[in-house]
Design goal:
Elements: H1 2-22, E1 25-28, E2 36-40, E3 46-50, E4 52-54, H2 55-60, H3 65-68, E5 70-75, E6 78-85, H4 90-94, E7 104-108, H5 118-130, E8 134-139, H6 141-144, H7 149-174, E9 181-186, H8 188-199, E10 206-210, E11 232-235, E12 251-255, H9 267-283, E13 288-292, H10 295-300, E14 308-310, E15 322-326
Parallel strand pairs: 7-8, 7-9, 9-10, 10-11, 11-12, 12-15
Antiparallel strand pairs: 1-4, 2-3, 5-6, 5-8, 13-14, 13-15
Helix pairs in contact: 5-9, 7-8
């Protein structure tokens, strides 16, 4: 017993000595700001989040995207109850309503939400109402749900690479092609949409970034890029606060100057408003932006350049580039056109 006690004491001392190493700070998302910050999740709800990564975080937070990401298929044949898809299982795929002859929509949620995120409850029925498509809701909440926001940012890329492998497998198994895809992501999912695009074998036809997250991506080389798809479109509704302010895509829209959305009383509401606009654009269109000469003009609404362009919608405006401004209503219908 005495020897066992000595062993337990030694183990306890070793564990105590290891604690400082676990508290070693590996990285900080915001060098200037406080460690703990209030950040909006994918539904616009605020959470007090850690923006530092320690050795303990890395040791504890293990994310296995191949095993933990869940793919939910919705079609007009099953518009409310999803059918599961599993990478590598062609047998399971054959039991679903997936049709490679249709266009496929990939939906990517943001931080601290999952398959039932507000963006999905809006966009799934909107896409299915507008066109007979395959809608795949990607639940990567095992990677995005961490209250340590910095870990969730790291997992955004890890998940994206896995999702791209899933798409490449699906295309190889069915004969579907990247030109029949539209990837839509919100917040962290917006950057993730771009990461997926650059890892898919071939150009994705249409990628939409809804309010690409600002924190963690200002100097991040993996942020959304114009070249991530054949046509990339970005909708900014909380510019410089929760979402990115500067242009990121072939086309960037700044509704109401990209900030202070009518009907909202906080940047978090503004952040969520982007997917409401996207959903409405699918069913009624109506959002028409005027071309702006500069970003400053888009932010102030001082856009007098010739040319207009519809925001969102089903069809990519391939070959179009530029910055656009438009005004919205405070309540549905949000579009004025």
């Amino acid at each position: 017993m005495a020897r066992l006690g000595l062993l337990l004491l030694a183990f306890g001392l070793a564990a105590v000595n290891a604690l400082p190493a676990l508290d070693l700070v590996i990285s900080k998302l915001d060098e200037e700001g406080p460690r703990y910050q209030h950040i909006a999740d994918g539904d616009g709800n605020l959470h007090l989040a850690d923006t530092w990564v320690t050795a303990r975080d890395v040791a504890v937070n293990r994310f296995d995207p191949e095993r933990q990401i869940v793919y939910h298929l919705f079609t007009r044949g099953n518009p409310t109850v999803s059918q599961p898809l599993l990478m590598g299982s062609e047998g399971l795929l054959g039991l679903t309503n997936y049709n490679p002859g249709r266009r496929t929509i990939i939906l990517l949620h943001g931080w601290r939400v999952g398959a039932t995120a507000a963006m999905n409850t809006l966009l799934v029925p909107a896409f299915l109402s507008a066109e007979d498509v395959n809608v795949i809701v990607v639940d990567w909440s095992a990677g995005s749900g961490n209250i340590n926001y910095a870990i969730a940012v790291t997992n955004t890329l890890i998940a994206a690479e896995s999702i791209a492998r899933f798409i490449n497998w699906l295309n190889q198994a069915t004969g579907a092609v990247p030109g029949h895809y539209h990837i839509v992501g919100h917040s962290l999912g917006a950057h993730q949409a771009g990461m997926i695009g650059r890892n898919v074998n071939g150009d994705i036809a249409y990628i939409t970034a809804l309010e690409a997250a600002l924190l963690g991506f200002l100097t991040n080389d993996d942020k959304f890029r114009e070249t991530d798809g054949a046509y990339t479109e970005v909708i900014h509704t909380s510019s410089g606060l929760v979402g990115f302010a500067t242009p990121l895509g072939h086309v960037d829209f700044y509704p109401n100057g990209g900030i202070d959305m009518p009907g909202c009383d906080s940047p978090d509401c503004d952040h969520a408003r982007s997917y409401y606009y996207m959903a409405e654009s699918l069913t009624t269109g109506g959002f028409t932006g005027r071309r702006c000469l500069t970003l400053t003009a888009a932010l102030t609404g001082n856009c007098i350049m010739p040319g207009t362009l519809r925001m969102g919608g089903l069809v990519p405006k391939t070959g179009t580039t530029g910055i656009f401004h438009l005004e919205t209503n405070a309540a549905p219908p949000f579009s004025r056109g």
